[in-house]
Amino acid sequence: MADEDRRRFLKVATCAIGGGVGLAVAAPFATLLAGPAGKITVTTPTDPLDLGLAEHFRAGAEPRKVDVIAPMVKDGWTAARNVVLGAAWVRRTAPDKLVALSAICPHLGCSIGWDAGVGNFLCPCHDSRFSPEGAKLTGPSERGMDELPLEVRDGRLQLTWVRYKLGQSTREPA
Amino acid sequence: MKTKVRDYLRERGLSGGGAAATIAGGASFAYVFGAVLVFLLIVEAVTGVALAAFYAPSATDAWGSVAYLQDQAVLGWFVRGLHFHAASAMVIVVGLHLIQTALYGAYKKPRELVWWLGILLMVLILAWAVTGYVLRWDQAGYWANKVEVGIAAATPVLGGMVKKLALGGNDYGNLTLTRFYTLHVLLLPVIVGAVTAGHVLLARKLGPTPLGDREGTPRPRWPEQTLRNTIAMAMLLTVLIVYVVAVHGVELAAPADPSAAYDARPLWYFRWLFELRDLAGRAEKLVALATPAIVLGALVALPLADRAPTREIRRRLPYLGALAGLLAVIGGLTLASVIGDARDKELGKRTAGAEQRARLARKLAHDNGVPVTGATDVFFTAPMARARALFATRCKGCHDPDRMDRKGPVIAPGHGNRAWILAFVKNPSGEAFWGRTKLVKTDAAMKSFDQMPPADLDSVVELIYAESGASDVDEAKRKHGAEVFEIGCSDCHAREEGMAGASAPGLAGLGTREYYLSFISNPRSALHMGRDKSEMPRFDRELTLAERDALAEYLVWLRTATRADLEALEALDPVDP
User: Fold this and answer.
1) Is B234 on the interface with A (CB under 8 A)?
2) Which residues have a Cβ under 8 Å from the Cβ of B378 and sit 6 or more positions away?
3) Which residues of B343-414 form beta strands (DSSP E)?
4) Residue A32 and residue B223: Cβ atoms within 8 Å?
């Protein structure tokens, strides 16, 4: 009987030590793998980005697509210069007013184009149409195009790049 | 419930079963090494999976991803250190396992195959380490791999092909890394796993060999032996964790750079071969290839040579003596190599320099990120790094305040600020300005404006200062300065964009990046010093546009910089001969 007890104790001890060893290896493994989930691993500039001279946009002209370029994007370990983040449709709506609409379709994120024949915006993926002001016309998109903060400083366009959540009627930053 | 599970496992051959369940002579700590090695393989697999989730096998990214892992990922340094040092531990335990097996005579009939599979595993594990060391793509791993592949390339007949296959072409690059990565994380794990399975299954089936010729009574393996195995694993893991924490993982040298010399040293378990090559002199290639072959051949031959049925140690002394001698030689050579390095003062200096360079690279990678153009460019993310390197090689000779043989005006912090402009206007022929140029000896040199009323002088200085586009200009002063300029300066100089003065440089945009770029490109253009007044060569034919622009940016920076700012930057200077 004493031998039975001894053997039982040894079994429990083996499992306990083994469990500790397993935990000591598994815990750092899980910590490292989960780490990036809680971090901003790819940066998006929050400062306004330069889109060039404002005078190039004339009142009454069709909207023009402008690439939004970040001077620097950190992605994990790399730092890349002049990274294209996306595009915006810019238009002068009044002599002293410029509007920028994100080219990302609020439906599922395709790239919205300008349908010159009809004179409104068209998303080629699911045929959502938007007015020149960006209002929702037809198609599956649940809201109009997303306006991006835009200001003119020293005659140059300064745009703040924001991504919004897709596929919903309300506008929320992603 | 418990019996159901056990029956399920037993039925499927996953538990219990014949000879494996008992140990002749009972459990012993002498039998833990095999189990500990399997445990270490599991540790390598687990840590390896986590590392692979961060690693990028490309020549431009590999170092950056490892630096990120080491310095930014949560516990990355720990997992990386555990992976590296557990591999070292594996080599040690392989050695102990081999010694124990030899001592107990466990290589003898019927266990020859177990022994041979063990030798094969040893070779595979060493190869595994080699394929892992290069992945970090730092100076240490890169140069060590060059030597290793170089040795392999010296193999008669096959060498050239082996090298091309290893590198994935003619030279080190992306394909080298993807290949070694595939070997390290796909092929070798599968191969080692399969051979280990064979080795362990056979060893289990045949059971451990008791010491000496007496067959002990069989005792159950579980839990006595399992407990001993587990205790050994726990002890080793504890030592490993303490060590990994104490040395903060494992070092990472500066990014691999084919143009920067490095004192390549192999991983410590190859140091004896490294030392032996050194001793061999001209026969080094032969020695490097033949020695491992001879050692492995001897180990493989052991069960064939020592065929007497006895396992008594004192009746196998010649064989055991030979093995002990081999181990002593390996140990001695390793020690000699390490001591030799420690005594080499010059090597110590170079190593310290390399370590400083590594620290700088990692700090810059941490602060600024690694450029997508490649990890060696991380040095150029230091502020003005390119410009300062250029300035040191191309400009200092004529412009450095500390150079006795300087021929041009001093360029130092504060260059182009108000105080500098004022000092210049007061005495253009001063020691810090045209004093050492040929211009100063001619009538074309600008005269001193020391006698100008201070208020006027001040205003002219503000006017010229404003040309730099500085944001702190006093507008009233500048306006007054413009009036003074018309009277006192405009006979010689011009202020209109793109205009040269009648007999002196145009001053439009003086102090801006564009101005400096233009000046450096061609100081003798009519807009600047003119054909005869400057000894400075034109640099538009020597430096690229980007290089000249970097220098221009640096000059703009110097205007607002102090000596302390410059010294802070110089502390960041990459150690580059």
Assistant:
1) yes
2) B64, B255, B361, B364, B365, B368, B370, B371
3) 370-371
4) no
**Cβ contact B79–A24 (<8 Å):** no
Q: Which residue has the tokens 């040269």?
A: B500
Total Cβ atoms within 10 A of residue A116? 8
Per-residue b/e over B510-527, b at no fewer than 16 CB within 10 Å?
bbbbebbbbbbbbbbbeb
Question: B384 vs B392, B396, B565, CA distance in Å?
Answer: 12, 15, 12
CB distance from B71 to chain A under 8 Å?
no
Whether residue B223 is preceded by a cis peptide bond, meaning omega within 30 degrees of 0, is yes
| Chain A to chain B Cβ contacts (< 8 Å) | 91
Does the CB of B39 have a partner CB in chain A at under 8 Å? Answer: yes
Average pLDDT per run of 10 along chain A, which is 174 residues long?
85 96 97 95 92 90 93 95 94 92 95 94 95 94 96 93 93 90
Question: Measured between beta carbons, which residues in chain A are less than 8 angstroms from residue B82?
Answer: 28
In the three-class reduction of DSSP (H, G, I as helix; E, B as strand; rest coil), residue B288 is classed as: helix
Contact assessment for residue A51 and residue A161, using Cβ atoms and an 8 Å cutoff: no
3-state secondary structure of B427: coil
Say yes or no for a CB contact (<8 Å) between A78 and B371: yes
Instruction: Name the residue among A2, A17, A9 with its Cα closest to residue B32.
Output: A17
Tokens of B457: 């002088």
CB contact A18 to B (< 8 Å)? yes
- Note the ipTM here: 0.86
Q: How far apart are CA B121 and CA B197, in angstroms?
A: 11
- Residue A151: strand, helix, or coil: strand
Pick the residue from chain A with its C-alpha nearest to B231.
A17
Q: Is B368 on the interface with A (CB under 8 A)?
A: yes
The residues facing B23 across adjacent strands are B219
**Residue A79, helix vs strand vs coil:** strand
Sort B140 into a burial class: Cβ within 10 Å, 0-12 / 13-18 / 19+.
buried
The residues, ordered by sequence, that sit 6+ positions from B295 with a Cβ below 8 Å of its Cβ are B326
Span B167-226, pLDDT tens digits: 999 999 999 999 999 999 999 999 999 999 999 999 988 888 989 888 888 888 889 999
Are residues B355 and B362 in contact, defined by beta-carbon separation less than 8 angstroms?
A: no
Residue numbers in B near A7 (CB within 8 A): 223
Report the C-alpha gap between B532 and B214 in whole angstroms.
Answer: 103
Q: CA-to-CA distance for B20 and B30, rounded, in angstroms?
A: 17
Mean pLDDT of B303-308: 94
The DSSP code for B447 is P
User: How far apart are the C-alpha atoms of A132 and B70, rounded to whole Å?
Assistant: 51
| Cβ(A68)–Cβ(A86) below 8 Å | yes
Q: Among A10, A76, A77, whose Cβ lies nearest the Cβ of B223?
A: A10
Question: What's the burial of B355, exposed, middle or buried (CB within 10 Å: 0-12/13-18/19+)?
Answer: middle
Task: Report the candidate in B570, B576, B520 with the shortest Cα–Cα distance to residue B543.
Answer: B520
Dist CA B191 CA B155 (whole Å): 24
pLDDT tens, position by position, B358-385: 999 999 999 999 999 999 999 989 889 8
Are B75 and A35 within 8 A, CB to CB?
yes
Cα(A64)–Cα(A62) distance, rounded to whole angstroms? 6
CA A113 to chain centre: 19
Cα(B290)–Cα(B295) distance, integer angstroms: 9
d(CA B58, CA B52): 13
CA distance B299 to B326: 10
Helix (H) or strand (E) holding B513: helix B513-521
Residues of chain B found within 8 Å of residue A35, distances taken between Cβ atoms = 73-76
Tokens 């101005």 map to which residue?
B515
What six digits make up the tokens of B191?
A: 């191969």
* Residues of B whose CB is below 8 A from A13: 223, 227
